[in-house]
Write a structure and sequence with these properties.
Elements: H1 7-29, H2 43-62, H3 66-81, H4 88-106, H5 114-127, H6 133-139, H7 145-162, H8 166-182, H9 186-196, H10 207-223, H11 233-241, H12 248-271, H13 276-296, H14 308-314, H15 319-331
Helix pairs in contact: 2-3, 2-4, 3-5, 4-5, 4-6, 5-6, 5-7, 6-7, 7-9, 8-9, 8-10, 10-12, 11-13, 12-13, 12-15, 14-15
């Protein structure tokens, strides 16, 4: 005897079929449907694509629930950027038109809507398409830190493909270097460094830019040591990880910068009443700076400069004095020079 199909299963099948039918109908009804398999596009067809993007933006603006609006917008755009079947020419051209709109919106800066800019940035970052690079670059200079953070994440997501192209790698490295040199938010800066942490076989292409970033930021630290933060930690970690690949000219430059960074950070760690994560972050920076100096420019006689961070961790009434004495052993004083004050390092006395 044939058993009747359970009613619940029948309902599920009917609903599923209905959903599939509606989706197919919506796709067919979309003004983009006739364009998806084309290889070239007339101006009128490009206008249809631009109008469709602007209609999605208008729908975003009309939706008072911005979380739902963000989700709907990103899903609609990224469905088209990855539509199958569909031509790569279609996906590329749609991205180019979307990038043009993003560039215009990002260019408004503070006069624009930061929530819309974030949605556009998220869509770019999630697209996985190389055509997003120009807009992601523009987003790295946006006044809203969340837009900058999202765009930095977009570069992180794309780096695997970017690194396959030598010319594009150099171009992207320059973009990220310039963004990092002027970035004021440590969270955004950390994400930019993550994008610059190339795999070992590509490390030689990014070590000099990272050293240049530290140099640019060092000028800010000289004016206000409190502006130094945990944002640069990933860069210092990467340099330590690949220290053997740093060339001789770069080593001299880096040692001079590290000496000044060490002076600023140790002085602050010894004198300021820091607490919690901020103090831990600063101590970790000192550890990395000291490790890098030890790896690149060790004292002629090993062990002649005791660890600064060891004195800090030991604590006690003499900790401050010991930390500063060990700092002076690295950077030198008029009374007692350091090996860093002599060639090939030529660090000025006191690492000003």
């Amino acid at each position: 005897m044939v058993r009747p199909r359970p009613r619940a299963v029948s309902i599920v099948l009917v609903l599923s079929a209905g959903f599939a039918a509606r989706t197919a109908a919506q796709n067919q009804a979309s003004p983009l449907a006739p364009l998806r398999n084309l290889a070239t596009f007339a101006p009128a067809q490009e206008a249809i694509m631009t109008d469709w993007i602007n209609a999605q933006i208008q729908a975003w603006k009309s939706n008072t629930n911005k979380d739902a609006a963000d989700d709907a917008f990103r899903q609609a755009l990224n469905a088209e950027f990855n539509t199958t079947p569909g031509s790569e020419a279609y996906r590329n051209r749609l991205m180019e038109l979307f990038v043009a709109i993003c560039l215009q919106e990002f260019g408004q800066g503070k006069q624009g809507d930061p929530l819309l800019a974030r949605t556009l940035a998220r869509t770019l970052a999630e697209s996985g398409r190389m055509g997003a690079i120009d807009a992601l670059e523009k987003g790295l200079s946006h006044p809203d830190m969340e837009v900058r953070f999202i765009c930095a994440k977009g570069f992180v997501a794309l780096m695997g493909n970017i690194l396959l192209n030598t010319t594009l790698t150099k171009h992207t490295t320059q973009i990220l270097q310039e963004a990092a040199e002027k970035e004021s938010n440590p969270v955004v800066l950390t994400r930019i460094y993550f994008a610059l942490r190339y795999p070992a076989e590509k490390a030689g292409e990014v070590l000099e830019p990272i050293i240049a970033i530290l140099g640019a930021r060092l000028e800010r630290w000289r004016q206000d040591p409190r502006s130094a933060d945990a944002g640069d930690t990933p860069g210092l970690e990467y340099l330590l990880q690949h220290v053997a690949k740093i060339g001789a000219p770069q080593r001299s430059t880096l040692v001079n910068r590290l000496a000044t960074m060490l002076r600023l950070d140790v002085t602050r760690l010894a004198d300021e009443k820091l607490r919690g994560p901020q103090k831990d972050d600063l101590a970790y920076r000192v550890y990395l700076e000291e490790r890098l100096l030890t790896e690149i420019a060790p004292p002629p006689n090993p062990g002649t400069i005791p660890s600064i961070i060891e004195a800090y961790q030991r604590g006690g009434t003499n900790a401050r004095r010991d930390m500063l004495d060990r700092l002076n052993a690295w950077i030198g004083t008029p009374e007692k020079r350091s090996h860093l004050n002599d060639p090939p390092w030529n660090v000025p006395l006191g690492a000003p």
